[in-house]
Specification:
This protein has four helices and no strands. By secondary structure, it is an all-alpha fold. It has one domain. It starts with 11 loop residues before the first helix and ends in an 11-residue tail after the last helix.
Amino acid sequence: MRNDWNPARSDPVFEDAVARARTLHLAEGVLVGLRRCAPENAIAELVSVAGAAGLSTSAVARELVTLVSGAANQGVESAARTVVHEQWGGLIGQGTPVQADNT
């Protein structure tokens, strides 16, 4: 069997899946740190919150990571961003969504 895998020519679908998994693990780590809970409880919370809001776990995880990184997008408000601010914003010290200052 040949091993001719080249990461420079990787499949975009595979790369997207890896990026989503990485973001999910980062969000899991954020919740483990904030809640001082087991990783499986953090994942269960992400899945539960996303499901209750009718959102993908990936979207909620991405917004949680964005919030804690301080790189919050000042653009259009998303449902996932609203859910993340409502659910975990208080733990991070950002209980309400930050609005862009258009002055």
